[in-house]
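ARCHIVE CARD
Drawer: 12
Card no.: 0347
Subject: one protein chain, sequence and derived structure
Cross-reference: see card 0346
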Amino acid sequence: MTQENDIDIDIALRKIHELGLEDGDLGYAYWYQISQLLKRAAGMQKEIDALAKALEICRAKLRG
């Protein structure tokens, strides 16, 4: 991941877990889904960064 997109989501995930525990069963299910979305978004960002780097390399090869 690039420096500008390299964030640690652990703090957010811990807070989401706390919110889920405070909200009972239904609230926990909701916050659990939110945490899954956050994890997926972080994974997608890593993939986007890798693809952007690969594209940059391909463009450099085409130019040179």
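Annotation on reverse: The two ends are 26 Å apart (CA to CA). DSSP finds two helices and no strands in the chain.
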